[in-house]
Amino acid sequence: NMDTDLGIDIFDVAERHARLKKREENKIRPKLKLLADNLRGGFFSKELYAYMGEPGKGKSIFLANDALQALMDGNNVVYVSFELSEEMFAVRVDQNLMQKEMYDVVNNVMAVKERYESLKGITTGKLMIKEYPTGGASALDLERYLELLRIYKNFEADILFIDYGDIMKPINGNS
Which of 72, 125, 156, 158 is the most exposed place for a label (fewest CB within 10 A)? Predict the structure, then answer.
């Protein structure tokens, strides 16, 4: 184990507050202002956030919006779905980016491509989309996927979105 971080000394107030300030600077803001306001301005690293609600109430749309916002703010984003195909999620992001209906997005590939080309001049972030079948991956599989992205694409995720995490495969094999 090469971890040399021994934690924080409660009496080292300057160090603790410097770390807090760094967390503030690195938070990732969601698309919806009301949500950002309720989250003290955004998503903080090393914290878990869950969008919960009845089926069909728009949780996946919120995730798509927040993934695109994080990308546009220059973050490296990974979106994992256990429900929607990679292609269909990408179309949802396209719809959000273009502010168009699905039909208009799918039938105007050149306009979508041009919009993404212009986006490259605005953001340094990237968005990777990965689909797993229901119950087809555990947290360990996601950890391996993130490591593969790091090794093969030199990609370090700033934020990970998991759509339908409740239907992931458990690590211990029990449901």
Answer: 156
Q: Which amino acid appears at position 167 of this protein?
A: I
Q: What is the dihedral of CA 8, 9, 14, 17, to 10 degrees?
A: 40
- Here the tokens at position 116 are 């993404």
The tokens of 1 are what? 């184990």
Whole-prediction pTM: 0.80
Q: What is the pLDDT of residue 154?
A: 95
Long-range contacts of 91-96 (CB under 8 A, 24+ apart): 92/60, 92/61, 92/64, 93/64, 93/67, 93/68, 93/127, 96/64, 96/65, 96/68
Reduced to 3 states, what is the DSSP secondary structure of residue 146? helix
Q: Could you tell me how far CA 91 lies from the centroid of its own chain?
A: 16
Angle, vertex CA 119, rays to CA 113 and CA 120, nearest 5? 95
DSSP letter at 31?
S
With contact defined as beta carbons under 8 Å apart, do 162 and 80 qualify?
A: yes
User: Which two structure tokens, joined as six digits, stand for 85?
Assistant: 């195909």
> What is the amino acid identity at position 132?
Y
95-102 long-range CB contacts below 8 Å, 24 or more apart?
A: 96/64, 96/65, 96/68, 97/68
